[in-house]
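Board notes (copied after class):
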Amino acid sequence: MCPYLPNQTSRMPLCVSTLDVNAERLDQLLASGYRRTGWFFYRPQCPRCSACEPVRVAVADFQPSRSQQRAKKLGDQHLQVRWTSPKVDEFRVQLFNKHRRLRGLSHGDFPATADDYQSFLLNAACNVLELQLWYQEQLVAISITDIGLTSISAVYCFFDPDYSWLGLGTYAILQQIEQARQPAESRPFGNRHWLYLGLYVGENAHLNYKAKYLPHERLVGDNWQLYQRARN
């Protein structure tokens, strides 16, 4: 069964091991539409559906909408941003499971364990960083980010739904864009051209938000197509 659309059959073979992936190779895989899960990469190869479209934002060209500007202003007022090396602990696993459960993303699965968390997000040969968002000394959101030579990839973002009023998912993406725009010598990274946001599926409410980051490109077939439209 497809995790994104009902009544569809998905096929997402794990076909490239990250054990052989350096920063330049990561860029190439992302540009070919691959996503990372643990040690491996995959690209949807579904028999009767092509709804999944990888999305990327050229960070130098990105222009926030008015709602995204409001989210940034709110986040700047209330949140602290930290970039660190990723780790797994009981708090992170509980936050990950709470986000999936309350946002309707668990699909009836058992709660993730620390081994599941490590396997899904942190097992990687490429450079991986953890973007943290803090509210009044409370860690409320984490975004796992892969770092390539000219691009970064937003692997997975999860947050405490009790703080949804802060627009945490939006603010995390805006922080990734902002950091990627920094000079090359900037730490933890800078001067990256692309932010890859993962898969866009128009009929899935958990994935179609990615169309709001404009202008952006989507991989349709084997060609990246530019999308621009009126903003709000």
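Comment from the instructor: The mean pLDDT is 92. The radius of gyration is 17 Å.
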